[in-house]
Design a protein that fits this description.
homotetramer, 164 residues, alpha/beta, 7-stranded parallel beta sheet, 35% helix, globular
Chain lengths: 164, 164, 164, 164
């Protein structure tokens, strides 16, 4: 653990489904690695798929990954996080993840992921999407979700938006 | 309060933005009224706009409306609910609303509303939308949000889906 | 439901163990009845024992009782509440109960009850105890938990402290 | 960060008041140091007093301390934690702390501390007290809170109870 204290770091959530495609898993691992190299703490939901890949990418590169689990026990966590917090809040932990971070990177498209994107936008936490949801308000106008074309772009955007 | 106990009733959330159009407010009030007439408890987020209109429609028709507020004090509630619960959970109360109900009716399109739609889908709570969000997964295929054309249709769908 | 709106009512939590003595159950039922007669909403944790007795006393007297359950489904609720909210928060719902009320009446002494007494004192919600815990800080000095000798005294204290 | 993953570590909460005596602060720092030397993660409420002293003792000895703050921003955290999570849950974060750990060490006696002791006992998380609360059920019998006479004894008990 470097000398920087926990309050001074940047925190970025990597959110995405527990069942993901190879492309999504690969992107998640690269995002995790790049965030670690930039000194950001990676927060995930602690389960499999995108969450596990991002945490593994982060900790394999020497970074710190924190898992905020929906259930009440650490047993369900993937084995790639530095710190595992079982919240017991069920899906409400999605809001806890968003609240804890300076930016969100969304990879892939489950309903849980969409809830995190929406909660982030609701609370002015910057979000960037890698192949995730497109959303439109009822009538017509498209809504301005930031999209990245690569893991590097997503990390660049997230850290710039997070103010570091 | 009729003889039916609280555990036997049907609970329906009416979710939507605190700032809404006249059409949305009118739909919300009608949805609230129809739910009251069918004996369902209406749960809202307790603030203005769609939330206040739905609660007013419900209680004006003799129904029971429950407000689950994001803040920690009842002072911020609209004056139309039978019961006011300040949760102090901030945006996490969106998840509490979804968890408490048998069906969700979404009217209009704020980010908070989208988070409730997504949390409901994530946890298999039936949702129907009146002029609310349209969502698409990254690539192409549209996603099957149920849409209603009228307050009556929305209520019919919600109660049918809720099993009453 | 009378014309008074939900934001204007007084809310009082009746907290106590799910397994209780006959004396405790009798006190809880009387407290529930007296609170109903005074127009206060009774909030309980929604399970058995003291919680069920207080809710039954309240609703049998025409009052409104709200159950805030620890689990995520209404199935576990006692059948005596007007409104049943499954929070899915586990023991964290104890804090939600305290946050929602103007005063707490504690009857009997489980650990869950003690957590509610302590959270209430921590957040300046008035508490009165009917045969519940006695607590002392490490060294010596006794701590000033208000104690009542009867259901009537407990209700009197709670409503006075709640400002009604 | 050593090779052990976050799910395999032992987690111990050190709970106590934000305003504490010199003796309590000294005990908290020693407890934090000893837990770090034994490889346990220290979780605190992230504010001052006992919380800050325990985290400082831990991180000064090369350990990992996690702060679970009541508020929604990292700004209120003490500067001694490795990881800072703003929960925005207010006093409900006391329950989150208890849920996240294998054992609790309570130092000193605020109402918040008592709520954590009670929640831990309620959910079968082992607790040991250093000069903290004494509690008695209404009638007479004293209740079996484990007490330690020194920081070393408290840590020994906590880690033994946590199964490591």
């Amino acid at each position: 653990v470097p000398s920087q204290t926990g309050g001074e770091r940047r925190y970025v959530a990597v959110v995405g489904p527990g069942e993901a495609t190879e492309t999504e898993l690969s992107l998640a691992a690269e995002v995790g690695r790049l965030l670690a190299e930039r000194g950001a703490v990676v927060i995930t939901g602690g389960l499999g798929g995108v969450m596990a890949a991002a945490a593994r990418g982060c900790t394999d590169a020497g970074g710190i990954a924190v898992a905020l689990l929906p259930g009440g026990t650490r047993a369900e966590a993937h084995p790639h996080s530095s710190i595992v917090i079982p919240t017991g809040l069920g899906e409400l932990r999605n809001g806890l993840i968003v609240r804890a971070v300076d930016a969100v990177i969304a990879i892939g498209g489950s309903w849980g992921t969409l809830s995190e994107i929406a909660l982030a936008r609701r609370t002015n936490v910057p979000v960037t999407c890698l192949g995730s949801w497109q959303v439109t308000r009822g009538s017509a106008e498209p809504v301005d979700l930031v999209r990245a074309d690569s893991a590097a772009d997503a990390v660049e955007f997230a850290l710039a938006a997070a103010g570091s």
